[in-house]
Amino acid sequence: MRKLPKPTNDFQTFYNLCVKGVGNENKRQRLYDYANKVLFESRLYEDNSNNNQLYKTVKHFDIVKQQLTVNYVTNAELTDLYINQMAKKNRPGRSLYDSLMIVPNSRCPFCSVGKVKNLDHFLPKSQLPIFSILPINLVPSCRDCNQDKSDNLFLEEKDQTLHPYFDDVSDVQWLFAEVIEDNPVVIEYRVDISTLNNTSLAKKVVAHFKVYDLANIFSELAAEELDLIYYESRRLFLECNSFELKSHLIQKKESGFKCYKNSWQVALYQSLSRSEWYCNGKFIIDAPVTDDNDDNDDNDDNDDNDDNDDNEVKICPICKGKVSFCCPECMTSIAECELCNGSGILTSSDCPNCEGLGLDRD
Questions:
Q1: Which InterPro entries does this chain map to (predicted)?
Q2: Residue 83 to residues 36, 117, 278, Cα–Cα distance (Å)
Q3: Is the pLDDT of residue 72 over 80?
Q4: Which residues, 6+ apart, have CB-to-CB distance to 112 below 8 Å?
């Protein structure tokens, strides 16, 4: 989801630095002897990644069915380079570990919402230990994304996910959302790859969205956001109109769009601003009754009543039913209305009961 600067550390120097920290002399020498193999495979990793073909590296190792090691270096010894010489504090490779963990706002580049907690092996070290300390294979990640991806390997192009160090899809919008007309409102997220010119990247976007379960993650976040903006949206619709609410939602979308086109917030506010159902206040669960026919029926019924007429609450003709009011001349209670200042009248003829005379016409 988010592009990160690719690590520029010289891998040969870093590999030797980590190997130097190995205490056992025999093991240390065997790892030094294995350096050329590790460096060769790391260059293929980078070349394939630059061409959106990292799956070829994975597929090659799956086909040959080999452990990617020579007889005198085990998978466990390669993995231990990461565990004991890089991830542990005060070890030779720890400074690089710490630098890779530094990302903008500590946000996970895979989902853009989780807080970075660890380094994820883009190609899992459990299956491809030869890349266990390769900097371009180590991506800062939140715990959820690290677990969702698990140790699954992609063997086909369509199964590749976005690699934060190599893939940039931030120039166009491909994340969108739809408003499900219900109370409470539900937001469904989707991807539209028609905006992407690069077919390989488009396939990665689809796979990434699925593997990291982003539709559900974003929908849950949107539900929280809808709760937070409910009363503001309600106020804009009731005290102003649907146009003001729509304009407010568009402004929220445009502000976020300038920062990052594919954030879940941008897609949310865009979908709300495009929804006539939402902008017309249908999301309001406690909206006042504004049916003119019902109001007329009530007035007809009132003609048959006696002195209780004076106590009936009328619909304010100035704000068109957005609030109820009582005539300040012929009744005692007044409901607040910013449009008529709580009076329910702008001219002497606006009171439906006494036409401004302060008397009961009946």
A1: HSP_DnaJ_Cys-rich_dom_sf
A2: 21, 16, 52
A3: no
A4: 1, 2, 260, 263, 264
